């Protein structure tokens, strides 16, 4: 539970789940909610895939998934795993042998879809390979590929069918004394996915991977993901997330962190609080924020920056942020540091000066954190 005694209405009581590991990343059991993405390069293009993984890791990805559709991809996976800065999840569909090969290649986790991996015997073979090579498993239920008998039973994809599918495969893993697994029940329909996840959370203590699958492009997909996953995370459900977008994987990572940051569940980089701008603005707020978002991408230290166009809300917002700038008149505005008025600044100097102040404040925060750690050792 994230405790906030001053503002208890911000508290989120996370669902109690048991903990597994994806490589060196803990998932569940109170661990920070990890952010995932997936490569869209050809897996056989080792250099291109590793470059995309590195870019995602630089953006903050904790885990990256790579598709393994054929034997050539299995062979390439070994080299990808060796060069990857983060644990790799092998995405397995249709061919259970790819799961075995991926485990042998060093994947940290195997993602299998119960609806298309094959018979229980084949699933058991994949389980044996995962156990032998220290892999965890994600049971990935998808509304678009449910087992035939469940579609016949329920008539159409629905939350009950998705959860029943997941629980059936949990039993297979547990019957084989395998417990290093997490589970997802994804759908492109926000209502269906949310209902399935709520039901799943009550039915198992396994860590839950959240996602709205096939959500769409950058804007529409982010909105759907924020609505679906945001409500679930607010309710305490979810141990690891992926924002599925028809966009660069780096954008998935950024959007994932933005969702978590908005709920106070993860903090990374600069949280910019800015107004939508209006005729009262003392400078071009929109262009300024666009420039600052790019210039401050390298900052990983959690901190806040307010960029407000005028004095209606500017001073009040600045009181709550590490660095702030509020537009004024005559081509200048007020700089706030640690919530207090500091000095006036011309609009022409604003971007460079704010970048300097943010970098300085980030260094101070990091130095303070290092001192605290040293004091406890």
Structure description:
The protein is an alpha/beta fold. Helices cover 43% and strands 19% of the residues. Helix 3 (96-105) links the parallel strand 5 (88-92) and strand 6 (109-112). It is built from 12 helices and 15 strands.
Task: Please outline the helices and strands.
Elements (H helix, E strand, L loop, with lengths): L19 E3 L2 E3 L6 E5 L7 H13 L4 E5 L3 H13 L4 E5 L3 H10 L3 E4 L7 H13 L3 E7 L5 H7 L4 H17 L5 E6 L3 H14 L5 E2 L7 H17 L5 E3 L6 H14 L7 E5 L10 H11 L7 E6 L5 H5 L4 E5 L4 E6 L2 E7 L3 H27 L1
Low-confidence stretches: none
How many beta strands in the DSSP annotation? 15
Summed up, the helix count is 12
**Mean pLDDT figure:** 94
Give, in spatial order, the strands making up the sheet with the most strands: 8-7-6-5-4-3-10-9
Order of helices and strands: EEEHEHEHEHEHHEHEHEHEHEHEEEH
Distance between the termini: 26 Å
Main beta sheet strand tally, sense and closure: 8 strands, parallel
Q: Which range best describes the helical content: under 10%, 10-25%, 25-40%, 40-55%, 55-70% or over 70%?
A: 40-55%
Strand residues, percent: 15-25%
**Assembly level:** single chain
CA gyration radius, whole angstroms: 23 Å
Task: Briefly note the structural class of the backbone.
Answer: alpha/beta
What would the principal axes of the Cα set say about the shape? elongated
